[in-house]
Structures are given as structure tokens and as C-alpha cells.
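Structure in, sequence out. Go:
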């Protein structure tokens, strides 16, 4: 997306997809209309693409903007295709020389992917209608012969996934305060989608789909799997099981019944990833620690055990009470029974309270020696920087 992709691969499960999957099963395309739901099959392209907010680009426009899709312009890659960095004039939207005008991210559909075409339509449907500070802005599209492209605002800090899990000098670990800021922004994006007017279920919430601008404001990207929520007196939407392993809610995996509380579960997983610095699924971990939720859940409710979960790169940056509050939000979101999960509006309120600087002064944590050393101010400042801009290619994740 505007964008950094996490490349996905097909698993042995018969249910597999994701915007970046190379081989996918059927996906129903949903509309972004705030008034009514659309049929499960795409409408005519002319009707779908009638959005006054979007710019229609020609293929030659985008070739020029990306310097003919040069390999060194690639921001990310996936089964959908590749994302390229480009430049356009702010007023006329015409291509400009590199380094001048407005930076954009251009997602180019792999022409061999029919499923990608359907997800391309879903992207236009949703982001062509919605505008919110915590959703990546879709500037326009290109529909020309067999070419399918999308043009987004450029997100200079790349994905949350990269900042949490990439190692080396290119990315410094995100500080505690920046993690809370990103969590709040992402929560606001989901809360907007779930509200009474939009009623959209995102369905593929994960760290690779949360992008950061230059000020570390989080925005949701990649709406290829989004679905209109239930209408009338219906309690759920029945769908094929699609998404990414480790993030999907257990009741959705078991029944195919999708609700906004499915997104809440996924948010709980991501919040736990932010708290721990561990991936939702990591087969490189010791036996018993492959699945983050299963491993961490027993520790989240107990202050004296919480140190086992918290990312040790964060030592000295948080209060124990603050960390426990975040762990509690994650734990509630991860409730097996969806009725016990909070709404995203409630999550936003709780995270906003944690942003309050009062009482946020870090203190030493002596529990079992894991967090006994208080970081120097220099260390905290380095963490706050969060690393340079850019979109290093992400690691592979399994899709359902």
C-alpha cells in the first residue's frame, strides 16, 4: 500500500489469501458505500470507479512518475504485485522529476492475479469513499487495458512491522511512547470503520498493514479483504475464512462468522506484539513459544510476571502500572468469547488515558532482574527516533 507489504505464502490450509497471496480462493468484493451493501460480485468497472475524490491516471503518467517502474524505486513486494515510489505535481498530478513535487506510492497489480483484480476493486471501493486521519489516503487509480494500479500517499516511516521486528542499524526499536502513539492511531482507524455509519470489518489487521507517517502517526492500509458489516438484525457476516495466521479470531476460524469483534481480537494480537517485540507466530522460538498469544496470555494479568513478556529493549521507558494497563487492554481484546471483548471505541478511550503524561515517569523495575537498569536519557532519545525513513522488504508471513 502507500505502502509496505508483508509478502505472504500459501499454506496447506484450503483457506488462503491476503492482498499479498500469490494463489487465492474466491473473495467477495465489498463496497465502500455508507448506505447499502453491494452484491458479492463486482459491479461494472465504470460504476465502481465513480468516485469524485479519486484521480484517474494514465499508465504513461505512472510510468513517468516512477521512472518506468525502476527496480530501485520498489518500496515493497507481494503476491498482489509491487509498490513503487514516484513523484507528481501537487496541483496538476502530472509526473515530476525525482525529488520534486509530492512523493507517492504506486501499487502495480500483477497481471496474472485475478484475485488481485478483485482486491484492487475492493481497495477503490473503500478508500475511494472514506477519508480519515488514520486511514492511508488513496489519491487515484489507473485502469487501462490490462493494467491495474493504485496511487497512495507516501508513508515515509514504512510499516509498524519493520519497526518492531527488523534488526540492525537501519531501524532503531520504537520507544514505549511511540508504540503507544501508533497503537492509539491504529485503534482510531478501526473505531472509525466500525462506527454506525460505515460498518466495515477490516478483517486483516496486522503490523504490516499499519503504516507510519513522518511523525509516527499510524494509518491503516490494504483494504483488499475488508467486508461490509452485518445490517439490520443480523449479528454477523458469513464469509470464507481469509486473513493471516496468528491474527484471526478463534470464532471466525471455527465458523466463518465475521463481526467487528473479530477485528478487536486482531488488535489485541498486534498490541501484544508491540508490548513484547515478538511476532504473532514465530517458529524460530523455543517449543511452547511459537504462538505469541498462547505463550503470553498466562503472564498478562499479573504484574509480577509481566516482565517475562515485555520487550527488554524498552527497559526504563515505562511504568509498571502503565505496562500492566496496556497488557490488560490486550488481554481483554483477546478474550475467547467475543462478547467479553471491548469495542474499539472503548479501546481508544483507554489508550488515550495512557497517553496522559501525568504519572508516566519511568521507574526502575527490579522484578527478577529483567528490567532493573534504567536507560540513560541518551538511550531513550535514540529509541524515540525510531529509525530512518524507508521501506525495507518485510519478512514472510503465512496467510490463511
Amino acid at each position: 500500500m502507500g505502502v509496505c507489504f508483508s509478502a505472504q505464502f500459501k499454506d496447506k490450509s484450503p483457506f488462503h489469501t491476503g492482498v499479498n497471496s500469490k494463489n487465492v480462493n474466491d473473495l467477495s468484493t465489498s463496497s465502500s458505500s455508507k448506505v447499502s451493501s453491494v452484491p458479492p460480485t463486482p459491479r461494472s468497472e465504470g460504476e465502481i470507479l465513480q468516485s469524485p475524490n479519486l484521480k484517474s491516471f494514465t499508465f504513461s503518467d505512472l510510468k513517468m512518475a516512477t521512472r518506468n517502474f525502476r527496480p530501485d524505486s520498489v518500496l515493497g513486494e507481494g503476491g498482489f504485485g509491487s509498490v513503487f515510489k514516484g513523484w507528481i505535481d501537487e496541483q496538476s498530478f502530472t509526473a515530476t522529476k525525482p525529488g520534486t513535487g509530492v512523493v507517492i506510492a504506486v501499487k502495480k497489480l500483477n497481471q496474472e492475479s485475478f484475485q488481485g483484480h478483485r482486491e484492487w476493486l475492493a481497495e477503490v471501493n473503500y478508500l475511494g469513499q472514506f477519508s480519515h486521519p488514520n486511514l492511508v489516503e488513496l489519491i487515484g487509480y489507473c485502469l487501462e487495458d490490462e493494467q491495474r494500479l493504485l496511487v497512495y500517499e507516501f508513508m515515509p516511516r514504512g510499516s509498524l512491522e519493520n519497526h518492531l521486528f527488523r534488526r540492525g542499524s537501519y531501524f532503531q526499536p520504537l520507544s514505549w511512547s511511540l508504540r503507544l502513539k501508533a497503537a492509539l492511531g491504529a485503534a482510531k482507524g478501526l473505531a472509525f470503520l466500525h462506527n454506525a455509519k460505515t460498518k466495515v470489518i477490516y478483517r486483516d489487521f496486522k503490523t504490516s498493514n499499519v503504516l507510519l507517517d513522518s511523525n509516527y502517526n499510524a494509518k491503516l492500509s490494504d483494504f483488499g479483504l475488508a467486508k461490509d458489516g452485518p445490517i439490520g438484525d443480523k449479528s454477523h457476516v458469513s464469509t470464507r475464512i481469509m486473513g493471516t495466521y496468528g491474527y484471526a479470531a478463534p470464532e471466525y476460524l471455527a465458523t466463518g462468522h465475521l463481526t467487528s469483534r473479530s477485528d478487536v481480537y486482531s488488535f489485541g494480537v498486534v498490541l501484544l506484539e508491540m508490548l513484547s517485540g515478538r511476532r504473532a507466530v514465530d517458529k524460530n522460538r523455543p517449543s511452547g513459544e511459537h504462538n505469541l498469544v498462547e505463550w503470553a496470555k498466562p503472564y498478562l494479568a499479573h504484574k509480577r510476571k509481566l516482565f517475562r513478556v515485555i520487550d527488554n529493549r524498552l527497559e526504563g521507558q515505562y511504568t509498571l502500572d502503565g505496562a500492566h494497563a496496556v497488557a490488560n487492554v490486550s488481554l481483554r481484546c483477546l478474550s475467547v468469547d467475543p462478547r467479553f471483548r471491548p469495542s474499539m471505541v472503548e479501546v481508544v478511550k483507554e489508550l488515550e488515558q495512557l497517553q496522559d503524561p501525568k504519572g508516566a515517569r519511568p521507574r526502575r523495575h527490579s522484578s527478577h532482574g529483567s528490567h532493573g537498569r534504567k536507560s540513560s536519557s541518551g538511550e531513550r532519545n535514540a529509541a524515540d527516533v525510531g529509525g530512518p525513513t524507508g521501506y525495507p522488504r518485510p519478512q514472510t508471513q503465512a496467510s490463511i
